Amino acid sequence: MIQRTIAQIEKMISVHNDISGISSIDINGVCIDTRKITKGNLFVPFKGEKTDGHQYVEAALGQGAAAALWQKDVPNPPLHLPVIVVEDTLVALQELARSYRNQLTQLKVIGITGSNGKTTTKDITANLMALQYKVQKTEGNYNNHLGLPLTVLNLDEDTDIAILEMGMSARGEIQFLTELARPHAVMITNIGESHLLDLGSRAGIAEAKLEIIAGLEDNGLVVYNGDEPLLRERMVDYQGHVKTFGRNQDNDLYPVGITSTAQGNVFSVNGLDQEFSLPVLGTHNVLNALAAMLVANHFGVPFARMNEGFASLKLTNMRMELVNGKNGEKIINDAYNASPTSMKAAIELINNLKGYQQKILVLGDMLELGPQEVEFHREVGAMVNPQEIDLVFTYGQLGREIAEGAKTVLQGDRVKSFTDKTELTKELIKYTNQETLILIKASRGMKLEEIATALQ
What we know:
Number of strands: 21
Structural class: alpha/beta
Radius of gyration: 24 Å
Number of helices: 16
Strand order of the largest sheet: 8-9-7-10-11-12
Largest sheet: 6 strands, parallel
Helix content: 25-40%
CATH architecture of the largest domain: 3-Layer(aba) Sandwich
Shape: globular
Mean pLDDT: 92
Strand content: 15-25%
């Protein structure tokens, strides 16, 4: 993490008060939450719509913070305490992260974006790179204009590789993140339907994701999903170093065989005489692995060692997480997020998994899909395979549209729709036993992980 004196920090950001009396104080790391303060932190408060973090500055300092930022337009700064007055605390945090990143001259940065699969790809890439390097990565969902600067400021000075996830909801956001991070390689996992409400079309999403190239260092590598025409057509005239992955054989790396099991996937790829074992459910995650493999190999990790990295892989929670229920049922908790693309991939996974007497889908609303949201939800319901899926439970107002689509392929009593999670769980438990497989998936805002927890 960042370790600097206040005098050094004054050279990294714009300061509006005299800090000569506190200039020798050592700062160790940055924190924005008083519940997580550790000794020596720089506490950064923000003015919010409902609460103002400045009211917690004295408490943070009392809990061990070494100093705090203070926004200039907030009255009554406690100047008897070690506070650093800045024009805007968020901008100052971003300035500090940018300056710290620029000081880490030996650091190599890998940036990842995409509509789906960012976090899984980040986790896989980190494991592969850790075979040869000291690696740090974005933790949780710290992938926006606030989270990415915090991630950068948490980097150790001897870290070799930083793997940074970059999310967005509007144009210009990824460009800001990538220009701060200055990556040496970037990945675009895919173009889906998330953020259609904000960006209007998949073409608009593609253009927003491609902003990640704006911050790429000279001779940097671009890895993208070559199966996506919206990316291919926009990369035709790009003159830099490019590698593609996907299912199609016109990609630089593609699978030539995939065997799916209840534990993950065994796959082989073009040009390599070996099999890879990926302990992650879903054939779509093989594509995420291919992206990670291309980048890792670019940085000198041999393909021959990559099974070592796969073997110890642990994904961030609620991403194809296989857990046991209290009645012996197997639960795939994929409740972190959902879009039509990822929902269809998850349903395809359940269709293909063998060895279960009963398969149940628990599906909820997919958010931020814009004017076509009803159509998207009904399409998801209609793709259920009646020979493979026994029951469909839906949750939420848009979940009802999934149920309507499912009823076109399943008899009505096999489709159950709810707007109350407790009622859904009570009904679901009636059908669970040790021969049951359950998929739970929806957008993050629906909090369907609560159902997975209740079943456990």
